[in-house]
Design a protein that fits this description.
This protein is an all-alpha fold. It is built from 10 helices and no strands.
Length: 212
């Protein structure tokens, strides 16, 4: 029968599916665009914070593991590419202007949004890679570190320069504590991670997690 008039669990599952493929995804995509493209600093900042709240509350709409993989892929519209677009936008503003300071403040919020979402959805990302190909997670993770390195290099404000390595450090520590980042990890994850981490900050070495 019609799940909308039958079993409550089926009706809820259908509602979540419709929300994910429609309104919820539309809202998160819109917020991402506003965060990158709007000319008004306060609107951009609010869009990032609202996007973060929506993503961290994604479990309420039953987003599948594959959804979170797309968020951290290299595809257009991903969270990873949001960082790239923000770094590219810096060049449009003189380093000494208030506008440049404002776009870097938005980027600071975006780095926090991406890092918090990545850590919150790490179990889903790992589970999805088990069903797909083990190298998928390593590729997306290394791609995220590359984008963060580029953003950090493009930064002129001390706030953003400090925020990027701090966010990377937190992710590295959590991944190590959970046993994801360890010597001998699949797809060269251990070696490739530290090659990229040191490009973000010279202090981000295996010694951070007690390794040589």
């Amino acid at each position: 029968g019609d799940p909308a008039t039958g079993d409550p669990a089926s009706a809820l599952a259908l509602l979540r599916k419709e929300m994910l493929s429609g309104p919820w995804s539309d809202i998160t995509s819109y917020l991402r665009r506003v965060a990158v493209r709007d000319d008004r600093a306060r609107v951009r900042d609010d869009a990032v914070l609202t996007l973060q709240s929506a993503l961290l509350g994604g479990d309420t709409v039953g987003a599948p593991d594959s959804y979170w993989v797309r968020c951290f892929s290299h595809d257009d519209g991903s969270l990873v590419n949001m960082l790239t677009e923000m770094a590219e936008s810096f060049s449009g503003f003189d380093k000494r202007t208030e506008q440049r300071h404002q776009v870097e403040r938005t980027a600071h919020l975006a780095v926090s949004c991406v890092a918090k979402t990545f850590l919150a959805k790490l179990p889903s990302l790992l589970k999805a890679s088990e069903h797909d190909h083990p190298s998928t997670f390593a590729q997306d993770w290394c791609g995220l570190l590359d984008r963060m390195a580029s953003l950090g290099k493009a930064a002129t404000s001390e706030e953003l320069k400090e925020a990027v390595p701090e966010a990377a450090k937190n992710m590295l520590l959590v991944m190590s504590a959970q046993g994801v980042l360890a010597p001998g990890a699949q797809s060269g994850l251990w070696e490739e991670t530290w090659k990229r981490a040191v490009a973000i900050d010279s202090a981000l070495t295996p010694a951070l997690v007690g390794a040589k």
